[in-house]
Write a structure and sequence with these properties.
about 240 residues; Gyrase A, domain 2; Cyclophilin; five-stranded mixed sheet; four-stranded antiparallel sheet; 5 helices
């Protein structure tokens, strides 16, 4: 039996929405992932169904037509009771290179000053943690990562940039993340990752899944240029391990 207070409600004619308490909690994420696995195993799978996860919610969407809300709700309630903390979650830890050179780290000096750190101390802290992927969204491939060291928590930029380059690594609030494509953005940019996080040319387009871990490691500017070329021609060896 779940230890969390969970609510189920209609989400239009084709879907229902399941919500957990309003907090970022690894235990909630794992319960959501277990429920997702159960739903898929019980037939709530593509192409008939889509399951969309966020920080504390899961949307179950019927693609072929309207649903009987009460009927689906009854089934989901049964499955929720099975999504306890006893099951294992298959996940990976991905090792992603980041260049913190001043050419890419547009805000690292300003952020370091605000946090009473040296830029190198900031880099050491940023690369010291296994970050948990809580969600993927905003733009395709953008990972919302939890686990940022408290000493790196900082406010978003007062004035967002109209253009943040693909691969830019940022800090905002209690989170860090990578911009998977050129886009506007208000996070503090401290480096750049040369590895593409989203591509329609591969299946799946995003190699990272919710529940995976990300570990950053520092590389030089020359290594960044080489890794970027390797990634573009498809010969980069992406490091990962089962966790």
């Amino acid at each position: 039996m779940t230890k969390f207070e969970i609510h189920i409600q209609p989400f239009g004619h084709h879907a229902l929405l399941i919500t957990w308490p309003d907090e970022v909690d690894e235990a909630i994420l794992k319960e959501m992932l277990r429920l997702k696995d159960i739903l898929i195993s019980e037939g709530f799978s593509a192409p008939e169904w889509d399951i969309v996860m966020a920080y504390r919610s899961l949307a179950l969407i019927q693609n072929l037509g309207p649903i009987s809300y009460l009927e689906v709700k009854s089934k989901v309630e049964k499955f929720i009771s099975q999504a306890t903390d006893n099951g294992e979650i298959a996940s990976k830890r991905w090792y992603l290179p980041v260049c913190y050179d001043e050419e890419f780290a547009l805000d690292i000096d300003e952020v370091s000053d605000k946090l009473s750190l040296t830029p190198q101390s900031l880099i050491d802290l940023h690369t010291s943690t296994n970050y948990l992927v809580y969600g993927i969204g905003f733009v395709p491939g953008f990972m919302y990562l939890g686990g940022l060291p408290k000493h790196l928590e900082t406010q978003r930029r007062e004035h967002p940039r109209p253009l943040v380059l693909q691969g830019s690594v940022g800090l905002a609030g209690k989170q860090t993340g990578i911009y998977p494509q050129d886009s506007p953005g208000g996070w503090n940019i401290i480096g750049n990752c040369p590895i593409s996080l989203f591509s329609l040319a591969v299946d799946p387009p995003c190699f990272v899944s919710v529940g995976d871990q990300i570990r950053f490691y520092a590389i030089t500017k020359a290594e960044h240029e080489l890794r970027k070329i390797e990634a573009q021609v498809g010969v980069y060896n992406l490091k990962s391990e089962e966790v």
